Amino acid sequence: MSSISSIDTSIYSGLIESRDAVSGRNAPEVAKVPTLSSSDVENSKVDLSNYYSNIRPEDLLTMAGNNVSQSAEALDNAMVSAIQNGYTVEDAVNIHLAKAAYQANCTVFNAVNEMSTFELSV
């Protein structure tokens, strides 16, 4: 007789029967369909007339430009650190991440620059 066949499984038969009576998540038999009256969401009006009134494109362009210069400096620092440390695996990862951040900031800067010079021709 192997060790697997000597296991007493009589205690599991009661567990299987009780599991069939109640589902694992105690879900109802029929799914409840949400209705508008049972919803807790309030349908209120929101005034968005002055939503864009306090945005100045110059501030956004300046901030994007600062992000580009900071990420360029971080990329330079990562490369200098790699040269000083003998170019370890950690330095390679830092350079890769700094380069990705620099490219992302350049993409954002170009998008902001295009949006700030947008003109509507009628």
A few lines on this structure:
With 122 residues, this protein is mostly helical. Helices cover 55% and strands 0% of the residues.
Query: What is the straight-line distance between the termini?
Result: 91 Å
Which class of secondary structure composition applies to the elements?
Answer: mainly alpha
Can you give the mean pLDDT?
75
Largest sheet: none
Description:
With 122 residues, this protein is mostly helical. The chain has helices spanning 12-21, 57-85, 89-116. Helix 2 runs antiparallel to helix 3 (89-116). The radius of gyration is 31 Å and the shape is flat. The N and C termini lie far apart (91 Å). 5% of the residues are buried. The mean pLDDT is 75.
Please give a handful of descriptors for the protein shown.
single chain
